[in-house]
Structure formats: structure tokens, C-alpha cells
Amino acid sequence: MDPRPSGTPHSDLPRCYRHPETETGVRCTRCDKPICPECMISASVGFQCPDCVRSGSGTGHAAGANQPRTLAGGRVAEDGHLVTKILIGINLAVYLAVLSVGDRLVAELELIGYAFSPVLGEVVGVADGEWYRLLTAAFLHQEVWHILFNVIGLWVFGGIVEPELGRVRFAALCLLSGLSGCVLAYLIAAPTQPSLGASGVVYGLIGAWVVLARRRRHDMRPVVLFVALSLLMTFTRPGISWEAHVGGLVAGALVTYAMLHAPQARRRLVQYAACGGVLLIDLGIVFARSAALT
């Protein structure tokens, strides 16, 4: 018998194909891929992997108690990129609306703290009660290069993060990242500097990707290099709302860390509390900044 303890770097056990950090001695009875306890789905004989069950090639009870779960505890969906596609569709739809309507729509939806709009001919802004701008600005673009960059970012990083979190948790992450980016821009750049774009969401997904890479025990050097280069571009290129980038990055990393490291027994409670905590911080900042501006 091998005296080495299980889980050491020298263990000969294979690693789960969905959770490379977890060693296992169990394999799918259909495709023979190694699967950990989190991925095992009871079948008539042995266990099967989520891929075989989802494709219909297995006989496991996917709708039962052993339904496969994502790394964060969400349900494994057949289309692991559905929310990402919806977000991209919303951004493209709003961009087409801007092309049709013009500057007036931009003036109605962009992030403004408290200022006189020459287009609308009136005082507008979050401090004037238009809180919706904190969300609509995160889906608004004027320049083709701007929306192209953000759509590519949503597709690349959304494709990595959404399958790991599940639809509901991923949607919450995106909304909180976009909101937090706008809130930090409102706090620092308000009242007169307008801001728009899905960059807060994209950087929130980058923050989530960093946490996921560390959780999966990937080589962090290329991850850190990419984040460093992204932040360098953020702070050195003119016309970039660094506040939205940093706010989204921090919120995305915090929310994802809570989702992935919540104790198994209280996973949902901790995840809900983390999302609620970020939301309360955002609301507190908005209330305080609005009071200061008005």
C-alpha cells in the first residue's frame, strides 16, 4: 500500500475532469472520465458524469437529488452561456436604438450625477432622482469600437464564468458589477462628467475569472499579467472611466469569492448575504453622494 496521504502532490489518483483540483477514484460508467463526489450522478449501475446525463446518453436521475451542480452550487444548464448571450443582445439592442434615436436617448440613459443637459434642456442626474441611470448606463454605447470591445469581453469572460457559477448567480454577479462600477463613477466623477458602457460588467467578470483561476489552482502568472495590463490601459488611455473599471473589478472579485468559498452547510445564506452586502454598500454610497450634491 502506498503510504503517501491522499491529496499530496505525488498522489497517483486522477483528477476530476470538471474540478481539476479534486482527486478521485471514481469514473463515469459511460465515458470513463474521472468524476468527484460533486459531479457524481447515481445511475442504475455506478455513477455517471454531468455531460453524459445532459446529452441523454446516460441513465442517471438528473432531476433528482443528485443533479449536477456548478462550482458555486448552481444547476448545470444545457446552455451554459444563455445569460451571456442575453446580456450581449441587450447591449446590441440598446446600441441600435441609439443609432436610430440619436443623442437624446444617450442623454436620457447615460450616467450623470447632477447637471444641466443641453440636449434635454433641464437638470438631470442620479441626484435628481434618476437612479435608473446607474443601470442603464451599463448597457449604453455610442462608439462602435466601444461596444465591440465590451461585447468581446462579455463573450470571452462570460463564457468562462457563467458555466462555473450557474445562471442565477452569474446574472447577480453581472448586475452587481455593473452597478458598482457606475456607483464608484458617481461617487468620484459626478456631477458633470457623463459615463456609459458595459466595462464595469466586463471588469467584474475579469475579477471573477481571477478568483476562479485561483480556486482551480491554475498558473496565476498569466492571469495577473493580463489584469495588470488591463489596468495599465485603464489608467493611461484618455477618456476611460477608470472608476467603472475598478468598481466592477472589485465587486466581481468579492462576490465570486463569497460564492465559491461559502461553507457547504450555509452556502446559499452566505452567497445571498454577500450579494446583499455589496448592494447595501452601493446604496449607501448613492444616498450619501446624492445628499452631498443636492
Give the SSE map.
Elements: E1 41-42, E2 47-48, H1 50-55, H2 82-101, H3 103-109, E3 115-117, E4 122-124, H4 133-136, H5 144-165, H6 167-189, H7 199-215, H8 220-236, H9 242-261, H10 267-293
Helix pairs in contact: 2-5, 5-6, 5-7, 6-7, 6-9, 6-10, 7-8, 7-9, 9-10
What does this protein look like?
By secondary structure, the protein is mainly alpha-helical. It has two domains: about 1-70, Herpes Virus-1 (2-Layer Sandwich), CATH 3.30.40; about 80-285, Rhomboid-like (Rhomboid-like fold). The protein has helices at about 50-55, 80-100, 105-110, 135, 145-165, 165-190, 200-215, 220-235, 240-260, 265-294; strands at about 40, 45-50, 115, 120-125. A two-stranded antiparallel sheet has the order 1-2. A two-stranded antiparallel sheet has the order 3-4. The radius of gyration is 22 Å and the shape is elongated. The termini are far apart. InterPro entries: Peptidase_S54_rhomboid_dom, Rhomboid-like_sf, Rhomboid_protease_S54. It is a multi-pass membrane protein.
Could you provide a short overview of the structure?
Pfam families: Rhomboid. By secondary structure, the protein is mainly alpha-helical.
Instruction: Indicate the CATH architecture of the largest domain.
Output: Up-down Bundle
What's the Cα radius of gyration? 22 Å
User: Into which percentage range does the β-strand content fall?
Assistant: under 5%
Q: Could you give me the name of the CATH homologous superfamily of the largest domain?
A: Rhomboid-like
Show unreliable segments: 1-9, 58-65
Quote the average pLDDT. Answer: 87
Largest sheet: 2 strands, antiparallel
Portion of residues within helices: 55-70%
Beta strands, count: 4
- End-to-end Cα distance, whole Å, is 74 Å
Organism: Streptomyces wedmorensis
Transmembrane segments: 144-161, 168-189, 195-213, 220-236, 242-260, 272-292
Domain Peptidase S54 rhomboid: 129-260
Protein name: Rhomboid family intramembrane serine protease
